[in-house]
Design brief:
- By secondary structure, the chain is mainly α.
- It has 23 helices and 4 strands.
- The strands form 2 sheets. The protein has a two-stranded antiparallel sheet with strand order 1-2. It has a two-stranded antiparallel sheet with strand order 3-4.
- It is elongated.
- The protein starts with a helix and ends with a helix.
- The relative contact order is 0.07.
Amino acid sequence: MSDWLDRRTGYRRLVSWLLYESIPGGARWRYVWGSTLVFTFLLQFLTGLLLWTAYSPSIRSAWESVYFIQHQMELGWFIRGLHHYASHAMIVLLVFHLVQVVIAGAYRSPREINWWFGLLLLGLVLGTALTGYLLPWDERGYWATQVTTKILGIVPLVGPTLERLLLGGPTYGHHTLTRFFALHAGILPALLVLATVLHVVLFRRHGVTHPGDAKGEDYFWPRQALLDGLACLTVMVVLAALAGWGGSERGFVFGPEGGAPLDAPADPSRPSPSARPEWYLLFLYQFLKYFPGRSEVIGAVVIPSFVLALMLCFPFLSRFRRGHALCVGITFATLTGALLLTVAAIREDQTRPMYQAGLAAAEKRTDRVLELARENGIPPDGALAMLHRDPQTQGPPLFRDNCSVCHRWDGHDGTGAQVTEVRNGESVAVAASASDLAGFGTPQWVAEFLRDPSSERFFGKTRHREGTMVQWARKNIPLMTEREIEAVSAFVIHQTGDPKPAAADPELMALGVRVFSSGNSEGAQGCVMCHQLDHPEVSGPGMALGPDLTGYGSPEWLGGIIMDSSQPRFYGSQNSGMPKFAHRLRNQELQLLTDWILEESATGK
């Protein structure tokens, strides 16, 4: 059979050409890098084809299809993890291969063209990794790719045109995704295959660059093939482990919780303070910080182009005395500089509260969208629309943008970040000028307020810090027991009929009604001396010196005071300067904000 097949195909000659390559000096571990690169590329190719069967390149379906791959497709998480981490491994392996080639002097005549093909392969691999990073259309990939493509736009004269051509328009959208997909799955892999074949052919033409003192001769088969096979097996084991790594908190897991990361779907309307390029371009991002303003082109284009030109000229530089040492020095200096810049970028981000808060917020949105998708499935209008209707996701930024100018949520702006302003070029924390609303709408919050309304958490920095409420508390709270304070607080919150646990205690509710209406036997005055409350069991003058407490803590009451706190039912002319949000918030935004405040308070978050 083999004779019959060989007469018709000549396969034995091809196998002999592949396996019996001469290796002067014998097999060595340092020759394995090329084989591991080819193996990793084949793994990328195969896993990419499998992912292609389930991926949908549309901004309305890209994230949803990746979610399906990660959480529902059989072993999809593992296939995607292999594909994701193999792209990173190719960059690492290419760098090792490049260093090995430079040290061995394999760039010198007559191998110049093959050296240039190697640099071309490095560029194609970077391009493939960059275009693939956007395809999940999640927050991480979307904003990181924006940072990268903006660097392209810095190129003089042609930069803006190239950026617009790549994006398919002035902004990121559907055409951007389809163009990146075409590049990632079609054009760049085809060029990679072609360049790899030519690279291998040229390598086989000139042979292995062996040490000058190499003795004896061996062939690729079997010793070098064994070393290459073991190296490829090691790469596979590492990639398989990374494909199942679920993060330091979850530990080593194989399942949908592991694999490649998938953040919340990209939301172009919400810029990310934690947008960074991938690790292999982080050095360039950091480098640009040293070239502000118009000098940015020097760091983005001039210096990188100069370094690349030097590397292209290695075959010519090596002809001079000590030229090879110079080439090796340039290579290690470039890699060391890139490593130091990457470390500097990481360390800076670790000390930036805004960046850390952005990461925490992004992680929270990711956990939330996965929770919603698992519980209810993804609706026809997509995962992003599902998040836009979710109070837990939309509430924090709404609070930050509309309320945190004066209020705080447990000391922060609602998203976990400090409220700051720039003074003399430095970011300085800004103190709250109104109450901290964390816990609002709960009996505990009301009880704490009753005990000391003049504290900085409540009225301490408002015009009410010496108002009627503060004077009442100073006079009457010492005359009340903790049980009575608890009862009044519970009654005020639950008087709308909200079926919460505290409302199930009839004795507590009865005591709350009695103290609210007429005070206690120790002489404490009831709340109706200043407040109105429409409740069948409340009796008293119901004077309108303070806000009407009917429905206090309900979405309707909270929404009303947000929209216009100067209404007669609230503070009227005593309003302390709280602006009207009736023309700033849409009804849906108001509902999301109030629902978030009350839900977060109820859960104690």
